[in-house]
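Dihydropteridine reductase
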Amino acid sequence: MQIYWTKINKIIEETPEVKTYLLDCPENFTWEEGSHVHFALKGFNDGDKPNRNLIRHMSISTIPQENVIGITTRIKEQCSEFKSILLNLEVGDEVAIFKIHSNVPLKRADKNVYLLSSGVGLATFRPLVLDYFERADNVNQIHSLNIDSSKDFLFPTIFESAVDKNFTAQFVDNRKDYYKEVKKLVADKDGLFYIVGSNEFLLQNIAVLREQGIKPEHIMLDKHEQQLPDFLPSI
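Tokens:
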């Protein structure tokens, strides 16, 4: 396993509780849209065993063309040891990244794509949308639906409806409105539905989609293949 040590290039305050850490891109480090990576802080591998309290599994919120690795995360006032340390890091500090993998690349299957997310889960979809904007081949249109009770919706300059790009961005701040909108989207039985959020959020969305007749193979989750049966038993 190769561990890449790299430096924080920039820290962006997206909202009062959400920050994006832009990391220098190590030589030969590549990824595709929808990728996640293990993100670790100094000291995580000092002992005989890795200190898992200093490691997190994070989505990469940038695309390679941006030449930086973006890690977007919510840090609340009461937070874990990991996020408490992260909050105090500055530009120039070193962090580690390793074990990159993508579960949700953008499928180009001549279908409509629906991106369903909760809160900062939108960071996983940012690269898919940017990739679509750069090359819309074999994707009919994309509709993003995000729920965030904080009302500080993320990436407003990217997640902005654009008729000329066949892209719709929709934000709601409560679950009742969110599921009302999901039930409208599932009228498209042939669409591809990507879901990112907590396990509870995934299961609730899957239940709604399956009740409305969406096939398991049309539901995309940011989970390793061996985890999928826990959410979609027929896979």
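The chain has two domains: 4-102, 111-230.
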